[in-house]
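Run: sequence + zinc ion -> complex structure.
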Amino acid sequence: MSTTLAFPSLRLTSPGHMSIAEQSLPKLREHEVLVKVAACGICGTDRHIYHGSYPATLPVVPGHEFAGHIEALGSGVANVEIGQFVTINPNIWCRHCQACLEGRPHLCSNMQALGVNLDGGMSLYCVVPEQLLYNVLPMIDPLKACLAEPISCVLHGLDRLEIKAGTRAAVFGGGFIGQLMLQAIQLQGATEVILVEPQAHKRQVANELGFATIDPFSEPSMMTKLKDLDFTVDCAGAGGVLTQCVNATKPGGDVLLFAAYPQGKALPIEPYEIFRKELRLIGTFTYPDTQLRAIRLIEKGAFELDSLITAVSLEEVQDYLEGLRDDEIIKAVVKL
Ligand SMILES: [Zn+2]
Ligand SMILES: [Zn+2]
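>> structure
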């Protein structure tokens, strides 16, 4: 491999402006590896970064959900080998802020993330610090292996609850995270998980996987019957969904706020209901420790992912970030 080799990268220069640029291979520093990216998921966070509603350091190559093969090693790299198939945790923790020292590194005040502050995976090659790498069985499809990151986030969100077998829950929002949530909640022994989603194709995918669904706009009577659930999950981050979650949750139940609402956005909410029902409104952000479990579940085929993912090219990413294909797909994954 020549160090003068140029390769294509998708670069976001300012909100709404991105292009594919030829980039030359960077020199690896100590404890860094070069990953040849095989697949990279396009995520709601990427869309927020693209629109300037999530804090990022521009210019940047987006993409924090990726998998690929190790192509070259920097000095001092001891635990991985060239050719190994890996996926990554994109988050670099400072290890000395209060959150890090208290054992919650995913809440690090100085967090830097690949694809957010440092160049990420929407590129043929990406430089990755060795400590972010996780091995994956080589026969696993990269289009699935790269989803270890969002699955890790979902598992951590559910770890924040105390889910018991036989539980009843509803997920609001049937995008990719909502669909993963349905499956993960069922894996944990729920007897009923309902998806609330206005878009027909998202409901259809969930129906085909055996989940009950409600269209909140055309089935208002079903919405009023949706109550006394053990917990609800907001994976929509829009409209009156958080209020609907509060209304559908049983006294003493939990509302998990998974969706990334735009920074600075305020919502009308009726605190009396939270007070009177003694609800717990629980936030969740990235994950500290769920990635090994996520990879094991992918390797076992525990999640039905084939009906959720659509392979796209680097050239198509901007259309997906603009939301031009939202009526067609659940999750776009860039195949490099
Ligand atoms: Zn993501
Ligand atoms: Zn920290």
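>> summary
The chain has two domains: 6-152+287-335, 161-283. The chain has a mean pLDDT of 95.
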